[in-house]
Amino acid sequence: MAGADSLTRFNWAARKLHKRLLQLGAKEAYPRGEADEQHDEGLDASFVPWSYDFRHHLLAKFPLAEGTSPISEHVLLDPKWTLALCQNALNGSSKQLANGGDERTSFIDDSAEAKYETEAAKPTRTKSAAISATQHLNVTLEKNRRLTPSTHWQDVRHLEFSSNHPIAYGPGDVLTIFPKNFPEDVDRLLQRLDWTDIADKPIQFTPTKADIEEVFYPSPPISLPGPCTTIRTLLTEHLDLTAIPRRSFFSLIAHFTGNQFHKDRLLEFTKPEYIDELYDYTTRPRRSILEVLQEFESVKVPWQWAANVLPALRGRQFSIASGGQLKQTPDGSARFELLVAIVKYKTVIRKIREGVCTRYLAYLPAGAKLRVGLQQGGLAVTKAESERPVIMIGPGTGVAPMRSLVWERLQWAKERATEVEEKTNHHANGVAGTGHSLLFFGCRSETADYFYQDEWQDLQRRMPLTVHPAFSRDQGHKVYVQNLIRQQSDSVYRLLHDSGGIVYVCGSSGKMPQAVRAALADVFRDVGRMDQKDAESYMEAMEKEGRYKQETW
């Protein structure tokens, strides 16, 4: 997920540090490199040429001693860790692993589990209602319901998880799901690399250096909950088989083929002058690591190098869609609701691609138990803000944190009313003093993907909330959230400028955030009689005051 300034200030930290170093009298040894993660060819498009030029500069500026030459890029360097058969695995644990037991359960340290449960039992939050770090907890999937009709092109799910312990979280916070690869994909890789015979034997990480006690030595590339695991478990739960391979992957597997044609082709993908070909072969068709290994069938990676060749399988973050009374089950357990679009599409080579995590979630049955991470998001919503009006822009699944916020504001209003009643002994309006909420939601069609439509209608009767849905395909011309913002310019201006309201923007990090910002600038310019510069300055001031918050992904 990307924060409020992740796009407009992607290189902000490097620029700020560079400027400060110059102020302190530092001399620039070499021009800093800046990257663009939204470039068609990814970060490598700018980083690779810069890194090669920097290397040449260093060698020219600080030449090696006579008779010494740089290590060739074609030399295979030993990794810090490799895999080896586990010598100390307990027989019972080894048998369970070999029989397909869940390694996450088999080797979780009891004291660590108790620590997690103790932490999970504390629902307290800091003053700003923030989660200081990622909390890990065990949850059960209660519901996995498709919201869009089966005839709609996109499968969007509403998922509900429960935890046995009360966990405090707020609007904008995120739940990290750790996916698993499908067994058939794991079997394909095991067969392709001839790892089937070793697949279920207990293995462990072992350092390649004999003595690591007296010097700093990095941790293994994969963090395991116990001393031993299996190749099958690593491939299922910890290593990514469907990721788009990076340049380093091609460079590494080129060492494990005796086919000169394959080796030359793999090495071509690592050269800056062939970056366009790398993009056309990998990123454009979304070709996976597994598919690359199947095409370069001469590559034979030793199983000991599995965790060095294959990237780690990362958890995927999803904004939590539940808030207020939805955060708790009837029996008092914590509840987490997610709104998830299942990633499935055809590439330019007409192959179907699926997101590793959403594919995992799509087939997850009710009752399934999994371990998740809970982490603070970037909206930093506080209870004190509930008295101020808010304008929420959340097209598509970007409405998830907006839903959390609406329910949370309703709950805060009820709590405030209770406090007033206790102090005055007079009945208080349950939503009195709550700032008006204005939600701009965007989707394709009212009948296909207007998420939580009935719920919004009910909430508008229970609290000062107005929902403006934009259906982009229900009429001859397309209508987006930015169009509705301009249509409601008087209300938007009054809530933001006159009443000091707060803006929340959530959803895709593509064109939407910029389009929304431009629409708001038009509101300040047209209704507030500002020129373009003043309108931009006003929104920049809102950002500094914490009144313009953005969470995009």
UniProtKB/TrEMBL annotation:
GO cellular component, one term: cytosol
Cofactor entry: FAD; FMN
Top-level division of the source organism's lineage: Eukaryota
PROSITE patterns (alphabetical): FAD_FR
Sequence ranges assigned to domain FAD-binding FR-type in this UniProt record: 134-382
Alphabetized Gene3D superfamilies for the sequence: 3.40.50.360, NADPH-cytochrome p450 Reductase, Chain A, domain 3 (1.20.990.10), Nucleotide-binding domain of ferredoxin-NADP reductase (FNR) module (3.40.50.80), Translation factors (2.40.30.10)
Protein's UniProt keywords contain Ubl conjugation: no
Pfam family, one: NAD_binding_1
InterPro entries: CysJ-like_FAD-binding, FAD-bd_FR_type, Flavoprot_Pyr_Nucl_cyt_Rdtase, Flavoprotein-like_sf, FNR_nucleotide-bd, NADPH_Cyt_P450_Rdtase_alpha, OxRdtase_FAD/NAD-bd, Riboflavin_synthase-like_b-brl
GO MF, one annotated term: flavin adenine dinucleotide binding
Protein name according to UniProt: FAD-binding FR-type domain-containing protein
Species of origin: Letharia lupina
Source taxonomy: Eukaryota, Fungi, Dikarya, Ascomycota, Pezizomycotina
